[in-house]
Amino acid sequence: EVQLLESGGGLAQPGGFLRLSCVASGFTFSSYALSWVRQAPGKGLEWVATISDSGSTTYFADSVKGRFIVSRDNSQNTVYLQMNNVGAQDTARYYCAKDYFPGDPPVGRAFEAWGQGTLVTVSS
Amino acid sequence: DIQMTQSPPSLSASVGDRVTITCRASHNIGTYLNWYQQRPGKAPNLLIYAASRLLSGVPSRFSGSGSGTEFTLTISSLQPDDFATYYCQESYISPLFTFGPGTKVDMK
User: B-chain residues within 8 Å CB-CB of A35?
Assistant: First the structure.
């Protein structure tokens, strides 16, 4: 059974930083891209970032580009989201999500499995 | 960028009803369209990928159709577990995923 467990959320000050982690199990971690998707309170889903299976390629939403970094450790089955210079607009539950298809396909991706999320609140 | 819209934003229905949700894309995305269900307080679940392909384990009362710019999710006979919010998501310009705003299905 695929499992994704996020941690690292909490309260951050505006302009501060947080590092989220997602530990995965139940599949061949190094064969799949992983993504972060967030959901602000009472709002819809927003894709944040994706890292390819090898970790060699990363992609970011415009709203976080230049502030967030995504990385992975395939030896530890863990993906990270480093959030820098956070603002109130970053307040959300952050979900880790696994691609349905292996590799780094150019089109047709889907998020097959999701963690339960970790809540990030940015406030002074 | 591709913009996604959904209609209606919300609907009220009863157990046993047939429910249809529409998702529209601002550009032709072929069949690169996924549907997710999110129950209150829970993470989303993938239901359908590539517009019409049912994920293994998803009940057959769910179906998807469409191509190009217009897509539909149909629940043939609404069950108590189906009261949730449904999101479409384009996967044409991977991985710059865009989700629709969601359609909330609640009990009449």
Answer: 95, 97
DSSP 3-state assignment of A51? strand
A24 touches chain B (CB under 8 A): no
Contacts of A108 (CB under 8 A, 6+ apart): A101, B32, B49, B50, B91, B94
pLDDT digits (tens, 9 = 90+) for A79-111: 999 999 999 999 999 999 999 999 888 888 999
Whether the per-residue pLDDT at B35 is higher than 90: the answer is yes
Question: What is the DSSP code string of chain A?
Answer: --EEEEE--EEE-TT--EEEEEEEESS-GGGB-EEEEEE-TT--EEEEEEE-SSSS-EEE-TTTTTTEEEEEETTTTEEEEEE-S--GGG-EEEEEEEESSSB--SS---EEEE---EEEEE--
pLDDT at A64: 98
Picking from B36, B50, B101, the nearest residue to A108 by CB comes out as B50
Contacts of B99 in chain A (CB under 8 A): 44-47
Give the A window 100-119 contacts with B, CB below 8 Å. 100, 105-117
Partner-chain residue, chosen from B43, B44, B94, that has the shortest CB–CB distance to A109: B94
**What residues of chain A lie within 8 A of the CB of B56, using their CB?**
none
- In this predicted structure, what is the pLDDT of residue A104? 83
Q: Check residue B97 and give its pLDDT.
A: 87
Query: Tens digit of pLDDT for each residue in B86-106?
Result: 999 999 986 778 999 999 999
